[in-house]
Amino acid sequence: MPYMEELELAAGLARVRTMMRLLDVPRDLSITALSTLASLERLGPRRITELAALEGVTQPAMTQLISRLEREDLAERLPDPADRRVVVVAITEHGQAELARRRAAQAKRLAELLAELPEADRAAIAAALPALDRLTARALTAIDPAAVPETPTPDLRSN
């Protein structure tokens, strides 16, 4: 792919990320907090250092974030089953419910926007999802080879 097309693709994906952030209301949790919870849900319990690397923040910043998520009962620290001296962070049931609630509200707002597009545009967006999932998996693997879930993202379009 020529360099300019790669730049255009990167800019386009950044616009999609911005649009999805705009659809996320309320904004009582930071983007990093929501992303961390989603990572914990998708990947399972992780060490704070792993989460910091995944989210692109410092270890002290992630420690503070996890403390806040714990206070709000969205995440919890647990002993690592492989090494009881080590602590891992896991999402709580309340954290999973909060993510599900936010995703449902975001999906509703997105559906309203999609309904305004022609069918051909909606089909093109749906057709791009498997490739975007593979691209995301490759990006995660580049950061942390153990970060890719064993099962693929479910196809929610059939629900």
TrEMBL record:
One Pfam family this sequence matches: MarR
Return the InterPro entries for the record: HTH-type_Bedaq_tolerance, HTH_MarR-typ, WH-like_DNA-bd_sf, WH_DNA-bd_sf
The name of this protein is: MarR family winged helix-turn-helix transcriptional regulator
The record's listing under SUPFAM superfamilies reads:
Winged helix' DNA-binding domain
Q: Which organism is it from?
A: Nonomuraea marmarensis
Q: Where is the HTH marR-type domain?
A: 6-137
